[in-house]
Amino acid sequence: MTVQALTLPTAERREHSAAVALNVLEHIEDDLAAVQAVAGLVRPGGAVVLIVPAFPSAMSRFDRSVGHARRYTRRSLSTVLTAAGLELHDVRYVNPIGLLNWYLICTLLGSFPRNGVVLRGYDRLVVPLARRLERRWRPPFGQSIFAVAHRPCPG
Fold first, then answer.
1. What's the CATH code of the domain at 59?
2. 3-state DSSP call for residue 55?
3. Is residue 89 classed as helix, strand or coil in its secondary structure?
4. Does residue 1 form part of some domain?
5. CA distance 48 to 18
6. Is 3 a member of any domain?
7. For 68-93, what is each residue's pLDDT tens digit?
């Protein structure tokens, strides 16, 4: 396996089996150009895997302070992926409990997420339970969107 960091968009072309971008796309002003560039890094049939923050209504001071240009919905992310020439495999919300906490702490109270005992407890107790639940149930909302799309094979 080869891991390579790069700046998007890029004119570089490759034949990787997959490209993964976790919490990256929301920082890039021209997200369509960025996804098109990522699609150019994978071979036909290769996967593009993304995690992006969900729901524009959850945009907070914290989001802006770390350079987020946007938050997505399933529909808006799907639109960018298909406009970039990718075929959708899975686009779903994840971490619904996290979104409720985000609305309360970051959006309504205007606070910033902080490392500490509360966050560590949440990560140790709530996250594993939420993951098990999400294996059986696809939530209609979440803090993030998980997406897998493929570069089409010719013919």
1. 3.40.50.150
2. coil
3. strand
4. no
5. 6
6. no
7. 999 999 999 999 999 999 999 999 99
- HSE at residue 44, side-chain half, CA atoms within 13 A, is 4
**What is the rounded average pLDDT for all residues in the chain?**
91
Query: Residue 4 falls within a domain, yes or no?
Result: no
SS3 for 67? coil
pLDDT at 127: 85
Domain that holds residue 62: 16-150
Is this prediction's pTM over 0.85?
yes
Helices (H), ranges, the chain = 31-39, 61-65, 74-83, 96-102, 117-121, 127-136
CA distance 70 to 28: 9
The number of domains in the chain is 1
Question: Is residue 143, in this structure, part of any structural domain at all?
Answer: yes
